[in-house]
Description:
Elements: H1 3-17, E1 22-32, E2 36-41, E3 47-51, E4 55-65, E5 74-88, E6 92-110, E7 113-131, E8 134-141, E9 144-155, E10 159-167, E11 169-172, E12 175-178, E13 181-188
Antiparallel strand pairs: 1-4, 1-13, 2-3, 4-5, 5-6, 6-7, 7-8, 7-9, 9-10, 10-13, 11-12
Amino acid sequence: xxKFSKLCMSFAFxxxxxxxxxxxxxxxxxxxxxxELAFIIFENGARQxxxxxxxxxxxxxxxxxxxxxxxxxxxxxxxxGYKGSFITTTNALVDFSRINASVMQYFSPVNRLRFGTGxxxxxxxxxxxxxxxxxxxxxxxxxxxxxxxxxxxGFGPHYSVGMxxxxxxxxDLGEQFSGNSIGFYFAxxxxxxx
Length: 194
């Protein structure tokens, strides 16, 4: 085993030993907002749109008490997830999908309440249109970085509901689209609730 590998393992054991809790976290929710990307008008005159910030999301990650702090009110989370928005009709599908990775820092000033701020990156962003099960248009939207702020209310030892605001912009074919959104979610996590 090389020196670098031994150093990484030693650091990992140190971090785990210094923390009162650590573990996996998941969240599922919905975001709304941003600039309009596409719309479909149905035969009955109804209009449905996809906005750049819209989407259902699922994230899985790792969360722990922030290393070096004895107070469990500070904790850090890393997550990876999928976000997708779509419009379907009997013969068409409009879809905007992306992979997201986030680093969040949380502070829990009182029991059951926490505030978070962090950075998110959206990668492999793909906008596509299908008609009769055949892709007629696809565009790989540029990767982008943005900021996230959130607030969570915890109930039980491992569950919370929250609201987040994401601020980022997508660029496609030289044109910029606001992906700003507000979202609501349900999350599971290690025991940050006192």
